[in-house]
Amino acid sequence: MSQQAKLEQMLELPDPLIFQSTDITWLLDHVGGLDGDVRDHLTYSLLSRGFMAGGFTTCQKVAVATQVEADKGLWTDIGSDGGDQVFLRSFSALLGALILGADAQSPFLTASQQTVWFRAAVDYLPRERDRRGFVPGRGWAHAMAHGSDFLSAAIRHPAFPVTRRSAAMHAIRAVLDATQAPFQDDEEERLAVVLQGFTVDASGCEQVAQLLTDCGAAYWQEYDREPSNNQNYYRISTFKRVCEALYFLAPNVRQAAQAQLDRYFSEMGLTQP
Asked: Are 50 and 60 in contact (CB under 8 A)?
């Protein structure tokens, strides 16, 4: 029986699963595989059950985190807006979300390792340029969504330092600033979930509200200066969708989100005089 066939059989077993070192090696070798079914439904599903459903021992969790960090798949061909390496980057980010999520529940990373993963989560989104969602023949790339999941897991981790909040918010601002075309697969909602994670205290709410104010001011200034530029419109539209999602997700900043939505509908002539 092939290694892949063995792992496919494991999908049918109840949790907690038992993983051998050969199983984990195969899974890590296929994190960025180009077969969408294998990557999404076999590799990621089993890695998720390993981290979040008791399948991995503590030593195995440490080994996976160490190996993924050493392989640096998150940064492979970073900055490219095409090509197949996006699958390795994107699913390394999603694996990073699993690692931080599991560590938040039951710590297994050292403090220095946590710092490395927090920094990676903050740095990844501003550096990622590939905004494709579903890629025909390859499956989901979805780097913006997976990068958002990674960052969301970081800021929700109890050890994430408050001093890193500004950098994390800058990562979201960088994604919005770089918008040149509309997202296709609800990435805006994933970005809003990241911002929701900051609204657990008054300071975080103030920072999110200020971010919305700053983005709104900058994007409308650009739009008013050159309204015929489609990129300016797409940036405003994307920002509006983030605010819509945040309005429902984060009641503590609803007023700030509402202000941006009111301005959008007013500026676009969609409200009664």
From this structure: yes
Asked whether the beta carbons of 19 and 26 are under 8 A apart, the reply is no
**DSSP secondary structure string for all residues of 103-158:** HHHS--S-HHHHHHHHHHHHHHHHH------EETTTEE--HHHHHHHHHHHHHTST
Q: Which residue in the block uniquely carries the two structure tokens 């089993």?
A: 46
Is the CB of residue 245 less than 8 Å from the CB of residue 192? yes
pLDDT digits (tens, 9 = 90+) for 31-83: 999 999 999 999 999 999 999 999 999 999 999 999 999 999 999 999 999 99
pLDDT digits (tens, 9 = 90+) for 20-45: 999 999 999 999 999 999 999 999 99
DSSP string, 189-227: HHHHHHHHTTTTSHHHHHHHHHHHHHHHHHHHHHHHH-T
Instruction: Give the H/E segment covering residue 239.
Output: helix 230-249
C-beta separation of 179 from 188 below 8 A: no
- Give dist(CA 11, CA 17) in Å, integer: 9
Q: How far is CA 58 from CA 32, 127, 160, 260, in A?
A: 24, 31, 21, 46
Q: How far apart are CA 125 and CA 111, in angstroms?
A: 23
Global pTM value: 0.97
38, 164, 196 from 155: Cα distances, Å? 30, 9, 10
Where in the chain are the domains? 13-160, 165-273
> Which residue is it, tokens 């981290």?
51
- pLDDT tens column, 100-109: 999 999 999 9
Residue with tokens 């990622």: 128
CA distance 227 to 141: 31
